[in-house]
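Supplementary material to the annual report.
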Amino acid sequence: DTGVSQNPRHKITKRGQNVTFRCDPISEHNRLYWYRQTLGQGPEFLTYFQNEAQLEKSRLLSDRFSAERPKGSFSTLEIQRTEQGDSAMYLCASSRPTATNEKLFFGSGTQLSVL
Amino acid sequence: DQQVKQNSPSLSVQEGRISILNCDYTNSMFDYFLWYKKYPAEGPTFLISISSIKDKNEDGRFTVFLNKSAKHLSLHIVPSQPGDSAVYFCAASGRTSYGKLTFGQGTILTVHP
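Predicted assembly:
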């Protein structure tokens, strides 16, 4: 169990640029989540996958955001035409749920700064 | 609309004493509750959870209490240790997806030696 891995750890970009983050979940986990955390707040749900299928997207996920999980393994989160309001910590988590509970294992996140 | 609230931004406790962190929620559809701990530059780490069919769950030094009628839960840490100093997040979810968590704002716990 190597844990959830996220790359890069930090990303600084200029407004209007596109950025892409990668998440490698724990290998036997079939669910993968993306959350976003801003300063002084708790993480907010963005989207999740069961295997390769994207099952739900938050209204926070504007059409500039797109997430993929090809082959149900790693996932990417792309933000197009970044805005200063996109500056946040982007967290990935994975899980293997049971019928009655689900424990998410989070990565260390990607800190995005949009200048 | 903050559905999960942690009204204390910070808590300071002496080593060896009890730490009590509180959390309130408004959505009656929530039926699974968790506490996560977060150190700087790391992702949140699962600490303990409780289902709505229980009112208490214990794991070593950590105990979570759930009062459904008051829509309130608390985390007790006994005895507190300096290594417990971190940000603690309360989170809740419903049966449709237990992994779709709604988090509180977090409470910074500082345990002094």
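The first strand of chain B starts at residue 4 and ends at 5.
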